[in-house]
Amino acid sequence: MSSSLIPANPSAVMVIRDVTPNVVTLSVPFLRFGKIPVGGRGTIVRLTSGALAVFSPVALTPEVKAKVESLGGNVQYLIAPDMEHHIFISDWAKAYPAAKLIGPDGLPEKRKGMTDEKIGKEEFAVVYKADTKRQTSVSAEFDADFEVEYVDGHANKEIVLFYKPEGVLIEADLMFNLPPTEQYSRVPEAERPKPGLLAKFFSSAQTVEGKGQKRLLWHAISRGNRLSFNESVQRIDKWDIKTIVPCHGDVIEKNAKGVFDLRHSEALWQALSHSATQPQRRLLNHYTSQDPNPQPPPPIPNNTSTRPFTLAVKDNIATTSPSPSPSPSLPTTCASPFLKTYHSPIEATIVTQLRSRGAVVIGKTNLDEFGMGSHSTHSAFGAVSHNGRSAGGSSGGSAVAVATGEVDLALGTDTGGSVRLPAAYTGVVGFKPSYGMVSRFGVVPYANSLDTVAFLATTVKRVEEVVVGTEEEGVGVWVEGDKRDPTCLSGRSRRRLAKMREGYGGTGKKGEWGLEGLVFGLPVEYNIFELDARIRAAWVAAAEALVRCGARVVPVSLPTTRQALAAYYVIAPAEASSNLAKYDGVRYGTRISGQSDAAAGGVLYAASRDAGFGEEVKRRILLGSYTLSSAAMDNYFLRAQAVRRLVRRDFDRVFRLGNPLVDDDEGRQQFDLSDLDEAVPMRDKLGPEEVDFLVCPTAPTTAPRLERVLGDEGDGEGDVVDAYVNDVFTVPASLAGLPAVSLPVGVVGEDGKGKDVAGLQVIGQYWDDARLLGVAGRLEEVLSARGTG
Known about the structure:
With 789 residues, the chain is an alpha/beta fold. Helices cover 31% and strands 17% of the residues.
């Protein structure tokens, strides 16, 4: 920047405005490259002590001096916010010699080497440096009123201030809000620059609308040190921002926090780098918010069985603050920039049920945005990691909270394996109940016909205590219906189903579970070529352990498994495209600043949705919208629903128990045997072997390295197809609405040394959840005793 870029008549064109009672802006016209109108702005802040701080000083005109005097005249701090915004600091230093000069590392040396007559050689009292920025102090009065973030990863090495008393973020080039309407408001119309092609292009990258500035911030401005830049943005994002005062463009006075989140969503997504040098920092990224003062639930009259336990809640499940807790309610963000500050007025039924049983909610856990993903990397809060590997998705944050021992139990949602896959990757237990057993009221929907509230814990027993209940712990949540959720079975239906399960351990009371005499099926279609040999060996070892315990193990065939994954990725996105239509910046979600209600509906919605949704969510919305279109519905959506019925029928044919939701004759129709593998025994081809449970891998591989998942650009787009294929073993049970539990098993490390962790899945018939958990608990003990788990 040089003096040739300064307006020749600053007194005539400057706009002096009180933005808040203690924050005054000094706005002037300014041409970048001598052609592009971007405007310039200085800011005066009156501290609580009465001292004045001047950020990015502009021309010291008589009008500015008068304004300074009206504020008390006690200028104590002059801040050059970066390597460019310092031209007038010498004029201010001469006028107010008591003021401390503050700037970034390298600026004093740069000024001493400049020949511009306006640039003095003053000494800086405070210089922010990358290695000491957290310890740098200006003064007691300054530190009391300001949060300071030195964004050393910014190309210009920027100092950002946050004036805490009034919630004002003051920045130079951290973000822009063009066009500079206020800064050119006093320039005569005839003298205003006419925007050419270059100006239009430049301005499009510096408006808060669209994607231009988002890309500029990510690819250009953060190029100095992207990891450090991302961490700085994450720290700034924690401030309670009400107003943003940029140097270039208009002041943002409405929805400032939302605008900041949307413009910096790329940095927030990757705020915790996938660099292997930061494992502990990544590990802490499994929460989106935590309660600083978690309160135990109030005592329940006549209830002697309730004992407190810690609970983490996936951040697509609504929570409120329990009375009389002094803490505010935790936001329900779905890990989306669209909902970063959303606080739900209602609490999910399952959270209320668990609070009544002693749950103390510790925090909300990170996830793939709106539950759409297999690695918990598509999040506005950054990727979740477990020991440098993928934590699975979309409930990766909940799984890590359990795996690290921070909570006794965690809630997740399982749509196509979103609890079981993270359980397998992190070495914990993940249980998906029968569809309709647990209320979905208060759960932000992804795919209504598939979403299921699910549970993660270190042992099956902990899950069983909550879901089924024991004489010591009281009645489990399985007995409670919810009229607010039409997909949740009524109390009458629950009692009828429980009676049908009598004799099979389905009464809700824990029996003496044993494995002897049970029949376990091994689906031959799950023995795919891509299955990791170590997991295949663990599967075989588990089958051998079952036989030693007196169970029978037989191969069974589920022919439609091959089509299940494709059907899922038609049905789930189709339902998601409908569910997410309400996020438009009007009904729900953050609206792009500057858009008015009078704007054309499509334009308003498109801008907000484009900025508010991440790439994976957009991908699934587009896919779902297409499959629901008149041109594609018959060929895709309706056929996927037909495949779903065939998947359910496959399960019904192999289970000894009938499906209470299906007519017996329909469930027992003969297979189409033409495509069965030759390895299937003849007796099974003549009529499927009836089994009590199915045992299979949870995922075809162990947890991949996070670097591979994130890809070369660190954007979570490593291999989308691979991520989808991870659900191949979990999707069938979800399509059929069946209960399934993932158990951890130990396998040999990738290099043949040490140990790794994988998951084995046990699947039961519909509403056989109680017996499934009991048998899974016994199998867990057997595998642990034999060193398989």
